[in-house]
Amino acid sequence: xSFPWAKQYQPTSEFGKYMDSRLPLPRFIYGALGAGYPTPxxxxxxxxxxxxxxxxxxxxxxxxVILGMHYAAETGVAFDSVEHIMRDVxxxxxxxxxxxxxxxxxxxxxxxxxxxxxxYGSYKPPREVLWMLGLVIFLxxxxxxxxxxxxxxxxxxxxxxxxxTGLFSAIPVVxxxxxxxxxxxxxxxxxxxxxxxxxxxxLPFVIFGxxxxxxxxxxxxxxxxxxxxxxxxxxxxIPFHPYYTAKDFFGxxxxxxxxxxxxxxxxxxxxxxxxxxxxxxxxxPAHIVPEWYFWPFYAILRAFTVDFLFIPAKLWGVIAMFASxxxxxxxxxxxxSPVRSNKYRPLNRALFWVFVxxxxxxxxxxxxxxxxPWVILSQVLTAYYFAHFLIITPLVARFEKTKPxxxxxxxxxxxxxxxxxxxxxxxxxxxxxxxxAE
Amino acid sequence: xxxxxxxxxTGALLIGLLFVITVLWGAVQPREPVAYxxxxxxxxxxxxxxxxxxxxxxxxxxxTFDRGQLQRGFKVFREVCSACHSxxxxxxxxxxxxxxxxxxxKAIAAEYSVPSIDExxxxxxxPATISDKFPLVYPNxxxxxxxxxGALPPDLSLITKARHDGSNYVRSLLLGYxxxxxxxxxKADTLWYNPWFSSLAIAMPPPLAAxxxxxxxxxxxxxxxxxATDVSAFxxxxxxxxxxxxxxxxxxxxxxxxxxxxxxYLSYRKVWADIKKPxxx
Lengths: 438, 281
Fold this sequence. Notes:
The structure holds 2 protein chains of 2 kinds. By secondary structure, chain A is mainly alpha-helical. Chain A has helices spanning 14-20, 25-33, 49-68, 78-87, 92-119, 128-151, 155-167, 175-183, 190-219, 240-265, 295-303, 313-326, 331-334, 346-366, 374-399, 409-416, and strands spanning 38-40, 237-239. The two termini of chain A are 22 Å apart. Chain B contains 8 helices and 4 strands; from the N terminus they run ααααββααββαα. Chain B has helices at residues 2-27, 38-42, 67-79, 102-110, 141-147, 166-175, 224-239, 243-276, and strands at 113-117, 123-127, 192-193, 201-202. At the A-B interface, α4, α5, α10, α12 and α15 of A face α1 and α8 of B.
C-alpha cells in the first residue's frame, strides 16, 4: 500500500497458497503489521502508544464482555451486581478492577498518543484524515467511558449522568426536550441505565471499526517520524516486523507492569469514593466531579461564569467544552507551517510545552470544587487554550523561523550516531529538504 | 488549498477572540468574598495509622490482614455497631477468611434470623445458614429512621471504600467525639460534635464509651483506641475481602511481567543491533 520497495507476501505452505487465492488474510496482516509495512527507522518510544491504545481497547472489550455476563442493568440491582462481581464471582474483582483502571489507562495512553501527534506534526498533510479519524475515536471513547461509569450506579454515576445530560438542557428552546429524550425520562432512571448499557456494549465495536479506518489511513502515507521529513528511499525505512513488533512488545511489557501496579496494588486510587455509595436521587454529593480524564474539559465547562451577548453562561460553557475538542478537527488548516516536527520549530516547540502545562493545570483545576483560586485559574487557562489553537498557532506558522531540516531520515539517523556526512542534523548539508507545501 | 486555509484562519481568529473575550470577561468580574465557613475551618483530616494490610512503609503495596485483629474487630462490630448498622454485603461463609472454623461460622450464623416463608407461604423467619448474608438491622429505611430519631445508620459493608482514606477515617471518627463545640459552630441538640464527620455534627452517639466495654480474650488491651482500630480494620476487610488474594496475584503478575519485559527488551536489542550501530555505507 505504501512504498514500492515494500516486501510482498510469499505463501510458503500449500495451505498458505490455497488460502492466498481465496481469502488472503495472511497477506493483509503481512502488509499491515508485518514485514510488508516499511516504517521510518527513527521512531522513538512515543510511537509505541498507538499499539498500546489498541491493546488497551482489547483489554477493555475482553474484561467488559466478562463483566457483562454477571452485571444486571436494572436500577434496583445494578450496584449489587457489581458488588456480586467483586465478592462472589471467581476472579471477578480482578476483571472489574482491570476494566475500571483500564479505562483510565486507555485515556492516559491516548492522551500521550495525541500529544505525540501534536509535537511531531502528524496532523499535517497528507495525514489530515488520519488525524480526524483519531479525533472521532477520542469522542467515541469519551461517550463510552461516560456511559460505562454510569453503569456502576453509585452516587457519582447517577449525579454524573444528571449533570452531563443536563448540559444539553442549556440549548435554547429544545434543550429540555433533548435531555428528557436522552435520559428516557425526567431524571436518570431505569430507562437511562438500560440504554447506557446497550450503547456501552455497542460503542467499543464502533471504535474498533474506526480504528481499522485509522490504521488504513495511516498505511497510505505511512507513519510520520520524529524528523517530520518524508520517507524518500528504502534506506529510510525498516520493515515493521520484526523491528517494531519487537519494540512494541517491549513497550507493552512496560505498560502492563504499570497497569498491573494500579490494578493489583492501588485499584481505587483513580476513582471517587462516592461511587461506592449506591445511587440516591434524594441526596446530592457535595462535589460532583467526573473521572480525571475529563477534568480539563470540566474546567472549561465551568470557566464561563457570566452571560455575554445574550447567551447564558451555562450555554457558553457547553459550547466552549464541545468547541475545545471540535476545533482540533481544523488543526491541519490552522497550523500551515510546512515543517511538521517541532524539533525544527523552536518557537512552536516552546509553545507546545506551555500548552501541555496549561492542559495539566486545567485538569487539576477541573478536579477541584468551584472555589478560588481554581475558578480564576480555569478562566485564564481556558482563554489560553482557545488562543493557543485559534490565534497563536496560525500566527506562529506564518511568522516563525524554522531550523533547516535534514535532507533525509537516514541522514538524521547517521548524524545522531556521529557517522553522517555532518554531525548535526540541522547543519543543512545539501540544503533543507523540500516538503510538500500542502 | 491556500484559499480554504486563510478562510479557516480568519474564522478561527474571530471565534478564538470571541471565546477569549467571553471567558476573560467573566474572569474580570468582581468576586464575592468567600464567607467564613466554620465547617471547613474545623474539619479534620483522618489521623494516619500504621495498618497490617498496608504492609511495608504503610504504602498498601504489600501487607495482609491481621487475622487476630479482624476477629477482634468483628467482636466489636457484633457487640457494639451491629445494634444499628448492618454489613449486608458480607456472607457468613466469608468469615472463614477471618480464621473461623465451619462449626464456629454455623454457630454465629444461627444467632441471626433471616426472613423466610413457612409451609403455608406466610412470612416468617428462620435461623441464618452460612450461605446467608448478614441480615439488615431494619427492614427498610423508613423503619430505620423511625427508630433512630430520623437518622439512617448506613450499611457498613463498603464504608471504608466509600470515604476518602477510609480505614483511617472510620477510626478517627470513632475516636473523634468532642465535648466542647467551637463557639462559631451551631448544631442541633440531638447531634454530636465530631470534627472528622463531613458536617461536623453526627447523629450517632459515641459508640465506644469506655475501656473494657468489649471483652478481649487474646491479651490485647481492651481500650477504646484498640476497639476503634480493630473495628476499622474489620470494616476494611468487609469492603475489600479479596485484598490478600489481590496482592498475592499482583506479585505473581508483576514477576511474570518483569521477566517477560526483560526478555522483550533483550530481544528488542538483538533485533535492532544492526540498525542501532549503522555501518558506514
